[in-house]
Amino acid sequence: MNFLKSFDSIGIIGYGQFGRVLYDILKPRFPEKKIKISSRSNRIDQKKFFSLEDTVDSDFIIPCVAIRAFEEVIEEISKFIKTGATTMDVNSVKLHPVEVMEKNLPQGVNIIASHPMWGAGTIKHNENSTKNLNMVLWNVRSDENKYKEIKSFLEDDLELNLTEMDPDEHDRLSAKFQFLTQVSAQVYKSLGLQETDIDTKSAILVRELIEIVQADKDLTKDMYVFNPYCKKELELMDKYYSEFKEFLKL
Predict the structure, then answer these.
(1) Which CATH superfamily is domain 9-166 in?
(2) 0.85 exceeded by the pTM?
(3) pLDDT per residue over 114-136, tens digit each?
(4) Alpha-carbon torsion, ordered 144, 145, 146, 150, to 10 deg
């Protein structure tokens, strides 16, 4: 099947952890397509790395930047993004990026919201494959045929388990699970847990959790700042933790 046949070029903005993963996924699958990367950390060579303006002159644009930098980037690319282009975010929160894209991107630009529930650590633990990993997708403002093309690529080629979910529901659920997992991984990482000769299965799983989540403090903070449901969940976590400490004193 000729996936993404309506998209002759792909632009990736940002070459951090997820930008690298995304490039490694796309490049071998689409050797005939021009895949451009805009990265502040890499020299422009007109082969792999391009200026932001050149990168945005693509049919399919995927910003892979920190949540806190997302609005600034979208405001910048809105100045020269072409009509008919499709932009898909990959942020761990959804209400904020959707609001930013709808506010700043011209009406002729297709907008899709997504959240790949995986990264380099997860893929490594999944035999270096995306098969059966989870991803959230939502058609914010896109031509239906282009949305279906992207959806088909994700489901049929990458073999992802897709869930179509509106941004509010996503953020509500993400605050309960992904955010609290990130917080727990931060705590475990700070404890400096090391492998021992008497590790239980649960101890092994905790270390795997830290490796998979990769305990990114900045990401955890961004989720707290930009997901309106995270504050309540953290307060509940603190409440139950305090109650359990009181129980242990008895």
Answers:
(1) NAD(P)-binding Rossmann-like Domain (3.40.50.720)
(2) yes
(3) 999 998 888 888 888 999 999 99
(4) 100
